[in-house]
Amino acid sequence: MAVAGAAGCSPRRRPRLNVYNWSNYVAPDTIPGFEREFGVQVRYAVYESNEEMLAKAMTGNCGWDIVFPSNYIIQPLREYRLLAPLDHTRLRNLDNLDAPFRSPSWDPQLQWCIPFTWGAAGILWRHAAPFRPKSWSDLWDPRLRGRITMLDDPAEVLGACLKKLGYSINSTDPRQLAAARREAIAQKPLLRAYLNAEVRDQVVAGDVLAAQAWATIAGQASLSSTGVGFAFPEEGFSLYADNAVILRESRRAELAHLFLDYLLRPEVAAAIVEATRTATCNGAAHRLLDPALQSDPVLHPPPEILRRGEWFEPLPAAAQRLRDRIWTEIKAA
Amino acid sequence: MSRLLGLYAAVVYAFLHLPLLVLAVFSFNASRFTRWEGFSLRWFRAALTNTQMAEAAWNSLLIAAVSTCASTILGTLAAYGLWKRRSRLLSGSLYLTLLTPEIVTGVSLLVFFQWLFRFPGLQLGMHTVILAHITFSIAYVTVVVLARLRTLDPSLEEAALDLGAPPWQAFLRVTVPLIQSAIAAAALLAFTVSFDDYVITSMVAGVDSETLPMVIYAIARRGASPELNAVSTFIVTALGALVLISERLRGR
Amino acid sequence: MATGRRIAVLSLSFDRLCRLPALLTLAALFLAPLGVIAVYSLLTRGAYGGVELPWTLENYARLWDPLYAAILWRSVWIAAVSTALCVLLGFPLALFISRSGPRKNLYLLLVILPFWSSFLIRTYAWMFLLRDTGLVNTLLLAFGWIRQPLPLLYNDAAVILGLVYGFLPFMVLPLYATLERMDKTLLEAAADLGARPLDALFRITLPLSLPGIRAGAVLVFIPCLGAYLTPDLLGGGKSVMVGNLVQNQFTTARDWPFGSAVSLTLMAMVMLLLMVAARSKGEDLL
To answer: Is residue B165 part of a domain?
Structure first.
């Protein structure tokens, strides 16, 4: 694809942009379209978790220009001075964003990030499962032994355990976190693996019967198979938003802004939703969507379900350290 | 008993070779599943047209070529130096590079480069991978060349020295030609080791320096893929050929 | 005399010049990095990653936690089992090669060839065979011997299989070298005295090949202990060994100080083993 784009360009080397994004977060023509229109070559690589991206971004010289952190990581990234401030004069399509995302709690003036997509974590399940999962505690059911997966994400796994115990997903109480840790370790013998987007194929293939998964993964799974369903757990679930940011180390701020502005175009964002089944923060794009997609209950849950959701929030350093340590212990147990 | 032994050997050889043979056979499978559905070259075609793989392969070749040149020179000189006089410091360090777990070498280089790069604003990239590869390849070269040197008659070089040649000339004009096949064998070995490295490379690679093993690992992690079978067959055949040549050169 | 020795030390003889580039390269790119992680192992992790003061011994103290001690212990156990299997499987093979007369080089080549082809791909080959939709399960299902795919992958057994497969040549080659050098006349004498071949094997060949077994065991045990790729791909992240813990701490967990402490502990275990083994070393490679 990159070769086809290069065919129409000048023999001199085109400017480069390095974009590091979640897997399955763009439509097939999103990147080539940008390359064609602006005569740029984009190096596009994907990651499966915030931690994978952070491991590179935290070094301060990883070489990526644009990454897509989740909302609760924006503040720490700012504190570590890893983000470049956004120049709104270069982002003419900013108003396409949906009203709630024009001044989100994690960046009220949108100085540092552009909300890109949002979603919830729930239970992706196969109709072949012995029962229909409705709550997080169903993922601890021995009938599903060996066919359960959880997300490879400390915030999500601890979040599910905390919700199962009736606490907030943003809890900083060491006792609550210790209880959550016990739950997670108790679940390990029943668990097949910790998987993020990779679980989609395993659910479609029938290897996994119930998985903690993001709604977008469920949306993609339903494209390949009709035997899957998605449940928003009764105890409550987590809400997140992934945002595009420009790293401070980037020396291509102008090009980066062009790319962000391109992503804000309604037709581009709408194409991404259609291809990846994720909920977009772009209101103008949302209105371009097929009505069936607009009312898809998995991607856009109705208000009474949405009420049970809780947004992730950044945590104080000590609590974050504790959670990271607990996660290492859970994985190592 | 020798019949039993022969039978046993056959079983073990099968164990050693079947997995790769099976992989090779299935890379010609028309279906993407493990049911045989006919002979086909489609996966080879798919692998060849995969731009990510092509770029990664090119990176791997470039890195292997440069690091092989450097490590062969450094390793040959080191072997010669060790042949002339033992040095526990050098021998010990070389042993250490061979025996240190790869993950430890990889993370220590990552930490080292990131610490070094803070000031000049450098980044991880092809150069860091090449430096890392040189580091672990030297020992392989030294082992091979030193083994050959130890079978050499030292009087040949001494004769050159007696005739008035300076030591470096005696080395270049007499010793090197005598061991050139061993040097070539060592170079091929270093190339193989560099081309195949995953663990150390993954720790010190940058944005633009994705190597073929890194691509293979990423695909393998996600599950099997028939293109991967095709690439694997190709690599195993190529590296196997290099090793064969290397062994012939060593005079086994 | 003292002066002469001092001059010899300071002079840049040609052979010293030859050793210097490699030595400098290793000092800069191998020893120095190890020094840096030694320093990092005594620092503290930042809230989201990175390193900062204060100095602390906490990273090493954490290793005494039963959780991590269990990982260290499991690594030792898996490495030990793999090594034992390599000895059991490798000894008869080495014996066979040493007695195979004119075809020795061919048989040796057949052992060396897979070993150098590509460790990553050889590990992937086992993934291809053992997965739920892999060849083994497909065949077993096709023959009707099982009704559900067997979970052959993602457990300790798969890791041990992968390690034995990967490092068997490391055992066979030194064993073969020892058996080659053995005095064949001893066996002839035993036969003359009426001993059965099996007796001769256990009472002559085996004891004499112990140095080779020791050398091979060390060569296999050490990389198995520090294995990363095999438990990662074949263990599926559930069979956590020390190598996985180290890699994890330097990537997604972003705890470089702790990861450094674990790395150095692993190095210490390797060095300890080497010192124990050095007393019974065979031929020097370097």
So the answer is: yes
